[in-house]
Amino acid sequence: MTAEVFGVRISSGLVMTKVTNAPTDHSKIAATRSTELCMAWVDVLSFTATCSTICLFMCGTQIISRIHKHGTTEGTGIAPFLLTAISCAGWTGYGVLKNDGAVILVNGVGLVIQSLYLLYYYRMTHYPRKRNITRLLLFTLFLYTVTFLYVQSDRPHSEKENYMGLICMLLTIATIGSPLVDVGQVIRTKSTESMPFMLCVTNMAVSVQWLLYGILVDDIYMKIPNFIAVLISGMQLSLFIVYPPNSSRLPHKSSDIIL
């Protein structure tokens, strides 16, 4: 009888243990599946965002084509190429520190593309303006070198991540803020003729993808600038509804704004 009672107690204990552990097991399974799903989305977004961003970088060929056609860089500023190149250099270093393959790849490719743009721009610039361009390019090369040396330095890893992340975030905000120049002209002329619609759509798509990517990997330095970029792109696209394109209201002026 005692053995039987003892056996019942053991059985009850086993049952209770199973019941108690069941929710924990389900929670672990759910957490694992959630993590796997999150990683799957990270992989998808890293691929699509990389492809679309590289396509966006290639939009600079329109400006290069115009420079080639005119045989000079007069009337075309170097700032868009310069800012994007410096930003790509910074993000490449940040990607190395974070061991983020997507960030390294897209910004490494962007750095090469923007550097080629800058070299061609320099080649097509005539004196005396070429002296100023030479100084700017040497300063850019200096920043490249400083970025590389800092990433490879013996400073604490977390400090390097935070410092590079902050610098990259500020550079990105400065770069994505350049389209605001077009917004002012649109409001003055009440026409969106000066704004390339497809470029605005592409900017929005790229910014949304990188914003979602930043949320999934929980990176504040990706979330903030891309959130701002989404707001700016949304404002630009809304202007196409408020002020439809009307070339008759637009002053004859070439635009060279590029991300």
Please estimate the helix content. Answer: over 70%
Could you name the ranges where pLDDT drops below 50 across 5 or more consecutive residues? Answer: 1-19, 250-259
Distance between the termini: 84 Å
How many individual helices?
9
Radius of gyration: 26 Å
Mean pLDDT: 84
Count of folded domains: 1
Given the helix and strand composition, which structural class is it? Answer: mainly alpha
**Major beta-sheet overview:** none
What does this protein structure show overall?
By secondary structure, the protein is mainly alpha-helical. It has one domain. Helix content is 80%, strand content 0%. Helix 3 runs antiparallel to helix 6 (157-176). The protein is globular. The termini are far apart. It is a multi-pass membrane protein. Its main location: membrane.
Can you summarize this structure?
The chain crosses the membrane at residues 44-65, 77-96, 102-121, 133-151, 163-183, 195-212, 224-243. The chain contains nine helices and no strands.
Main traits of this protein?
259 residues; 0% strand
Write the SSE topology.
Elements: H1 2-57, H2 60-70, H3 79-98, H4 101-123, H5 129-151, H6 157-176, H7 180-189, H8 197-216, H9 220-242
Helix pairs in contact: 1-4, 1-8, 2-4, 3-4, 3-5, 3-6, 6-9, 8-9
InterPro entries: SWEET, SWEET_rpt
Pfam families: MtN3_slv
Subcellular location: Cell membrane; Golgi apparatus membrane
